[in-house]
Amino acid sequence: MLEEELSHICTCASLLKGTVVVISDLNLDRLKSYQNKGKLLSNLEAEQGLKCVITKPTRIARKGAITTSTFIDVLLTN
Fold it and tell me: Residue 23 — very low, low, confident or very high, per pLDDT cuts 50/70/90?
């Protein structure tokens, strides 16, 4: 459902203005493209011809000896 809505919004924006910019905190981790939530963004980028401007993880947390990274802040554009 979310993927269809985002795709529809991007298509409409592209048809109306030609330029699409998606800025969001959807809590969809681009680093986990093997999961459905991560695939949603990858699919949207491929379908709409978008590119993510942010290229590094946006949250890095350290808890003891364990470091985790997430890439949930998104800035996509064509």
Answer: confident
How many angstroms separate the Cα of 31 from the Cα of each of 14, 21, 40, 53?
26, 20, 12, 15
- The burial of 64, by beta-carbon neighbours within 10 Å (0-12 exposed, 13-18 middle, 19 or more buried), is given as exposed
Q: What is the 3-state secondary structure (H, E, C) of 28-71?
A: CCCCCCCCHHHHHHHHHHHHHCCEECCCCCCEEEEECCEEEEEC
Enter the pTM of the model: 0.73
Written as six digits, the tokens of 57 are 């993880």
Residue 59 clears pLDDT 90, i.e. is over it? no
Half-sphere exposure of 71 (CA within 13 A, CB side): 17
Of 19, 53, 62, the C-alpha closest to 41 is 53
